[in-house]
Structure formats: C-alpha cells, structure tokens
Amino acid sequence: MSVTAAQKVTTFLMFEGAAEEAMTFYTSLFDDAEVVAVERYGPDEPGPEGSVRHAIFAIAGQQLMCIDSHVHHQFGFTPAISLYVQCENEAEIDRLYAALVEKGEPLMPLGSYGFSAKFGWVNDRFGVSWQLTLPA
After folding, report:
1. How many C-beta neighbours within 10 Å does residue 29 have?
2. Which of 36, 52, 64, 134 could be stapled to 117 by a disulfide with Cβ–Cβ 3.0 to 4.6 Å?
3. CATH number of the CATH domain containing 87
4. What pLDDT, on a 0 to 100 scale, did the predictor assign at position 6?
C-alpha cells in the first residue's frame, strides 16, 4: 500500500524583491497571522543574497507562499485573481481597506453594492488584489 500526501491548493505570490516586505505587511494586518517559514538565497545562489527564495505565511488559517523571483518578468499580478476576505465587523473592513489602499489603487471604493452590507476591492502597493466584504 502506497501512502501519498493529500493534494492541497495553496496561493503562491511571486514578487521581484518585495516578498518579505509584502509578507510582513500582510501578517501585520490580521490578528491570526504568522510567518511560518522563510528560506533565503545565500551567497553564490541565483537570487540576491538574503532575499526570499521561498516563504510560507498564514492568514486566518489559510497558508500562502511567496518568493522573490531573481528573473524579471513582463507580467505582474492581475485583479482577475484576488484574495477574498470576509470581515467580521465594520471596523475591521474599514481598517483593512484603509491599510491595503494606502499606496495602492482602489478598484471599488467601500460601499454597499447590493450583495453585501459593505464591500471594497483594492490593488495593494505590491499589486496584489483584495476583495473585502462584510456579510449582510
């Protein structure tokens, strides 16, 4: 009998030099968030020494991965894929939206759009898209 690990889908964010800054920012926004593991590039490796080769962090029990790509790419993040956060109260959605939109770009300002009590969509300073909702 063969034992294999259960398949798991994990969000993977590729940055070009901002992985640690983004991960630190994201984990600072949520009470139940933490950096789980960080592997860094060492000397004589392809990425800049000390940058993130691979990291795992958790927000609200959901693990995400991130890296600093040492290769420049002609693409970045797109709002077609976003992190969707169901907030517990109005204070939380207001706080998260304000933090994420700072140096970012609002896609849908906080408001009532008919499908939730309050909703906002933003591309943060790193280009990652977030949808924040307050259930009715």
Report:
1. 16
2. 134
3. 3.30.720.110
4. 80
Give the tens place of pLDDT for each residue, 65-123: 999 999 999 999 999 999 999 999 999 999 999 999 999 999 999 999 999 999 999 99
Does residue 61 sit in the same domain as residue 95? no
The edge-to-edge listing of strands for the beta sheet with 118-123 is 83-86, 129-134, 118-123, 105-111
Q: Are residues 58 and 93 in the same domain?
A: no
Q: Which domain holds residue 113?
A: 83-134
Query: Is residue 88 domain-shared with residue 62, that is, in the same domain?
Result: no
Q: How far apart are CA 93 and CA 95, in angstroms?
A: 6
- Whether residue 5 lies inside any domain: the answer is no
